[in-house]
Structures are given as C-alpha cells and as structure tokens.
Amino acid sequence: MAIPTLIFLILLLHLLFASQPCHLILTSAVDGRWQLLQTSIGISAMHMQLLRNDGVVIFDRTDFGKSNLSLPNGKCRNDLSEGALKVDCSAHSVEYDVSSNKFRALMVQTNVWCSSGVITPDGKLVQTGGFNDGERRVRVFSPCSSRDCDWQEIPNGLAARKWYATNHILPDGRLIIVGGRRQFNYEFSPKNIAANTFNLPFLLETNDKGEENNLYPFVFLNVDGNLFIFANNRAILLDYVKNKVVKTYPTIPGGDPRSCPSTGSAVLLPLKNLKMADLQAEVLVCGGAPKGSFAQASRGNFIKALKTCARITITDPNPKWVMETMPLARVMDDMILLPNGKVLLINGAGSGLAGWELGRNPVLSPVLYRPDRKIGSRFKTQIPTTIPRMYHSSATLLRDGRVLVGGSNPHAFYNFTSVLFPTELSLEAFSPTYLDSKFNDLRPKIITPKSMSGIRYNKRTNIQVVITGKVAENLVSATMLAPAFNTHSFFMNQRLLVLGNDKVTTCGNSAYNIEVTTPSTHNLAPPGFYLLFVVHQNIPSQGIWVKLR
C-alpha cells in the first residue's frame, strides 16, 4: 500500500474512532504509533514533569481564564492580578497517573506562566518563578502514593523575578536558575547566605532588541562541573562558583537565533565511555527561526523555520559547530533523549515562531535522530499525528518508553472556536518503533534491582534481566536517564548516561547478569533519581527508578 494512501486511511480511522466514548485510540502502525489517551484533561499542557511515582505533573497558567476542570471540594483561588479571574474555582494544574490513564486536579496558588522547574535529589519537583504574583515564588510538589498531595508555595523564594528562566541541578544538589526576561543574571535555590543574584553579561549581549531571542537559555552541566549556556546563536562555558566565563564558543554558522521566541531546541547528547579520562560531551541544537522572523510574523508574514541542526563537542579545546540538515524545517520543536540513546524531535511548526498567533504550518511528523550514524543518514521521519502541537506544547518520556505529548495554546486565553489552532486539552502518546511487539524476544526485562533501589557512585552493580531471544552480548548496555522538566521546547536537566556493560553472564532460563559501573562523580551525574534501562540491540527494557547517592 502506498504511504499517502496509508496515511489517509489512518486519518479516516482516527476520525471515526474519536467520536466513540473510549479512552485509547490507536492511530498508526508504521515507524512508530500514536495513541490518544485523553480527549481532555481540562487544561492545556504548557509545562510537564515525570515524577518518581510515575505521575506526571502538568500545568498551564492562572490567567488564561476558567479552565475545563473544577478544583475539588469547592476550592477557589482569589487573584488580584491584572487579566486574571478575581475568583477562580477551576484548576490550572493536574497530576496524570500513567498506569491508570486518569488525572486529578491540583491547585497552584500563584501564576506559573512560562516558569521553570527541576527534580531535586530527594525526588521533589521544585518549580520557580512565573508571572505577576508568581514571579518570585518557589513551589514544591512532593509525590505521594495516596495521590492526595498538592502544591506548596514559598513566598519570596527567589532574589529576582524569574520569567522564561532555565533551571538545572548542580553537582552539590542545589538548583541554579539562569536568565529570564530582562534578567541578565543567575541565582541559586535554596538561597545562599548572600541571597543575591550574580550578573551574567552574556545574557545581555545575546538579547536582540525588540525580539530578545535569548529566553529559556539552553543550560547543560558539562563533565568538568562547569555550565554550558547557549542563548540566541552562541554559547559560553561558565564557572558559576567564581562567576567567570572559562570558554567562549563560536557563533553557529549563519547566525540565526535558536532561542525563544525564535525557538529551537537542544540536547546534551548521551554521555558514553564514562571511565575515560578525556570524556567527551556533545551538544545538538536543532530548528529555530531566521533573523527577523518576529518582526515579519507581526506583520502577517510567516517565514519558513530553520531546517538545520548544529552539533558541537563542548569539551574540545578548539570546538567548532558541524551543521546538519533535517528532513523537515521546524520551530518550537521538542528534543527528547530516548533510552537507547536516540533523539526524538517532536511538536512544532514549519513557519513563524513562538508567540500569540505567530506560528503556522504545524509539523505533525516526529523525526528520529541517530547520533552514532554518519552525517546524511542520521534522521528518519516517523508517522504523523493528527493533532497540531504549536506554541505552548509539551512532552515527556515515560518509564515504559512511550513519549507523552500534550498542550498547544497559541492564544492569550483558552480559545476553542474560530481560530486556526484551537486550544488543545488532549493527551496522546507516541510509541517509538522499539515498542513494536515484533521485538519482544529481544526486549530485556529487569528482574533486579527492584525499582526505587539505591545505588552509589563508582561501584560495580549487577543488573539481572530476562531476554527470551538470542542475545548479542556486545549489544547489551545499561543507560541512566534523569527525568527532565519540559516547557517552551526545552528539557531542563535532561541527561542520559550510557553505562555500557563490563560483563554479561548467562544464568540459565533466559536470565542474564549484567555487570556495570555506576558514574564516578557528581559532575557526570548529580545525585538523585534516575530511570535505569537495559538496552539490547537498540531495544530498551521498561525503566526502573534508582536513586544515585
């Protein structure tokens, strides 16, 4: 059957089934699979974070107007902020339970619009900043098995207003908050003794007048303990302790902006060969909008998005960007590290940029990036969804290997009619090809350690798995993934470590013992909760939660 015909039939089936009262709707079977989980969770998924109890915390903003989900037990918020409902009895945050495919309302007390977050070493979601009454708030969500926990807020938890900022966990377990609108600085949480902000002129230098193009900077912890910070079209390596720039990276060829609102995305590629003294780290930046796109879109001219990626070895003494071409131009893309080390590009638009009504031509097809292949053979287009995911979309990797996708609201309020891209309240899941049943005999199943086990630094650790098919021992590897906070096309604190295997031993009855060595330093892997996977011939197991300490 020709591919265009197949896609037409898939879309037709989706329309037929979507009218039926069922929760799960399969929409494809080639190069991945789409599944509609919820037609509406009542809010639009602007921010998303997977928790160690396999819940996903989702929230949008408190001044969107009334959502489609009421707060429980007659709860209401009083809000004196401009543009907000003075009394709002609707929810603007939910916790989605993956195993049951159900969700419940949560209550945020101040505006979390365009905020940031990260999972701390104790497994709590710490979320910072926002708009108006939320701009200096720190919020904490502690996952609980009873599913009755809710947001706690700390007034004046920040030294400066933080809106469109980026968070990252540091090797000592603290949280750093970098940048934000008109905030050319960084600070720490919890506040240190000085409780000050620290100036970062790089953020002022990368601010394009009238457009900015340096919001939500891409921040990664380098293997030497310094921070790689990318904004607009270039990057620095920052010693945040001494507040000193220790390396300046070249501008990406072409000079087009990649940061919000000319929003591209970025990942720290999987860290491998962890025992080597000269460990390498690479960053990949993809998509964005050409120079001048904001001014043009404001006049109704929506310029085609960038079709390029730029890759750089940030540990190289003389680093240079290497350019690659994607199959599809994309702005407002999300880049997700998969358990097998591949990168999934998903969501976004083909023209325009981030902002109210400024995106056009939704890109429905995800693209798989295979970093270990030669240039020219790294990208593979996946089956498309039927739901546009434009500005204010989000996604996250789940423990079972699926990618949860939600959101899209390019409007100042909830708007469901008479617009190009109505506010989207649905949740769907994308299943990469590695989840196809034809790979079941290659798929490892982790027997030990049990989920929530503790592991220590630089220790030999045994992982016992069952693999029913023929095992290629040289193609067995363990990986560790830090759960990331996603909003505005960036996954804060996203990090994948490839532990490899030191030895594979056959135990009989399809059981195998895999000996691995855990990361040796906090610079490689800050303490906290990780998802541990075993990958065999590029087919990952389901993950288990482990706590590195």
Automatic annotation (TrEMBL):
It comes from the Eukaryota. InterPro entries: Gal_Oxase/kelch_b-propeller, Gal_Oxidase_central_sf, Glyoxal_oxidase_N, GO-like_E_set, Ig-like_fold, Ig_E-set. One of its GO terms (molecular function) is oxidoreductase activity. Its main location: secreted. It is found in: Secreted. GO terms for cellular component: extracellular space. Keywords: Oxidoreductase, Secreted, Signal. Residues 443-547 form the Galactose oxidase-like Early set domain. Residues 46-434 form the Glyoxal oxidase N-terminal domain. It holds the Pfam family Glyoxal_oxid_N. Residues 1-18 form the signal peptide. This is Aldehyde oxidase GLOX. It comes from Gossypium barbadense (Sea Island cotton).
